[in-house]
Each structure stands twice: as structure tokens, then as C-alpha cells.
Design goal:
Strand content: 25-35%
Helix content: 40-55%
Oligomer: single chain
Number of helices: 5
Largest sheet: 4 strands, antiparallel
Strand order of the largest sheet: 1-2-3-4
Length: about 100
């Protein structure tokens, strides 16, 4: 479902493609957000995978850049997949290595 692209990017294959005009989006790349991309949200809300916080941040860190309307219409399973990548980017490397060995 999720393909590792680079340490600062993750490609997520969508279960349900997004239609944008005549184009079908089947994969979305999520970039590790810089602090400025997180403005207007609370970090805890993102860690809780709060939908409103994700709707704010995802258009800033996805390629192709998803619109608010596209995120609102997205399959919940695809939103969770994108959310997991966002949360993973927010964790310290030491936490990630601890999770890998647990």
C-alpha cells in the first residue's frame, strides 16, 4: 500500500483513485512537512489524526497537491494511509528506531 520513496517522501497508493477532471490520481506522494506547513494546526491534533488538521496540512505537503474538496471526498482508508505517513514524519528518529525493534 505504501511505497518508500525517500526518507523525506513517501508514495501512497490509493485504494480509491481521485478523479480530477479527466485525470485519475492513483498515487499521492507525502513530503515531510517543515514547521511552516504545520501552521494553523496543533501538533497533537495531527498526532491524533484529526481530520480537520489533516485537511489543513495535506494540501501543503502532497504531490499532486490535493484540494480540500478532494480530501473531503477521499476514501477513509486512503485518508488513514496518508495520515500514518504524516504522523511518522513527526516522530523523532529515536522513536522510530524503538518502534522498529519492539
Amino acid at each position: 500500500m505504501t511505497d518508500k520513496t525517500t526518507p523525506n517522501e513517501k508514495a501512497v497508493e490509493l485504494d480509491t483513485p481521485i478523479l480530477r477532471g479527466k485525470t485519475e490520481i492513483t498515487s499521492v506522494t507525502v513530503r515531510k512537512p517543515q514547521s511552516g506547513a504545520l501552521r494553523g494546526t496543533r501538533l497533537q491534533a495531527l498526532l491524533d489524526m484529526d481530520v480537520n488538521a489533516l485537511i489543513t496540512v495535506l494540501p501543503r505537503i502532497t504531490t499532486p497537491a490535493l484540494t480540500t474538496a478532494e480530501i473531503n471526498e477521499m476514501d477513509p482508508a486512503d485518508l488513514v494511509s496518508l495520515s500514518v505517513e504524516v504522523v511518522t514524519f513527526l516522530l523523532k528518529k529515536s522513536v522510530l528506531s524503538d518502534l522498529a525493534t519492539a
